[in-house]
Amino acid sequence: MATRESYRLDYDFPLPVYSMPKLTSPLPVKEKDGLIMAAFSNCEPVRTEYMRQLMTFVQVDSYGACLRNKNDLVARYSSANGKDFKQLKTELAKKYKFTLVFFNQDCDYFVDDQLSHALDAGSVPVVMGTDKLDEFLPGNLLHSVIKVRDFKSPRNLSDYLKYLNNNETEYNKYLEWKWKGIGNITGTVIARLLETKVSNLLPNVRCTFRRTNTQGWSSANHVQGEEL
Q1: Among the ranges given (42-56, 65-79, 211-225), the one the predictor scored with the smallest mean pLDDT
Q2: Residue 129 near residue 106 (C-beta atoms within 8 A)
Q3: I need a surface site. Which of 60, 106, 180, 214 has the fewest CB within 10 A?
Q4: CB pairs under 8 A, 24+ apart, for 45-53?
Q5: The pTM is what?
Q6: What band does 220 get if pLDDT is binned at 50, 70 and 90?
Q7: Quick one: which of 155, 124, 95, 130 has its CA closest to 18?
Q8: Rounded CA gap, 30 and 18, in Å?
């Protein structure tokens, strides 16, 4: 029987498109002068429409091509002095309480480095994507993200983000892993893979793209695994 390689954790040789986040200290809440940041330029219809609806209830600063209302990131990139674009995004995200991490695919086990960048920055990720997400967040990382699928609508999500914005104690619970450490992740699949450094970006990843609208997901077509 042939062996199989994939970003999926249930394959023979899983190679997740993801890396373990760093334990760098986040900026103090009082120094975060932005609320919500987005920076993606592959304007997949569902995630773009969800963000458009979210923007009607709460301020979202969009630096990517999708619903862009901020140009600072483009200007920074043009004078980056060798800095990589993802590094610039991470630096910018440090000043925001939340970062929209909306994957352009909703496939089992598809999690890419957008999530790592937000976690590294200490900007709480608001994630639209696979329902297998918890398998990538062992130990103290389990309570480090906010999942779009846990909310009935963009309005409900916006209400919760506003609540956290006004409640520093509750907001900081999402960042506790930065101070406590990732915790005991021994024996988890993702820990074994990341600790042995087999994780890497896979070109042309293919998966079943199942997102159909802002309320739900169902099987549709196939797309390439390119992100941003």
Answers
A1: 211-225
A2: yes
A3: 180
A4: 46/211, 46/212, 46/213, 46/214, 47/102, 47/103, 47/104, 47/128, 47/211, 49/213, 49/214, 50/102, 50/128, 50/148, 50/154, 50/214, 51/100, 51/102, 53/153, 53/154, 53/155, 53/214
A5: 0.77
A6: very low
A7: 130
A8: 30
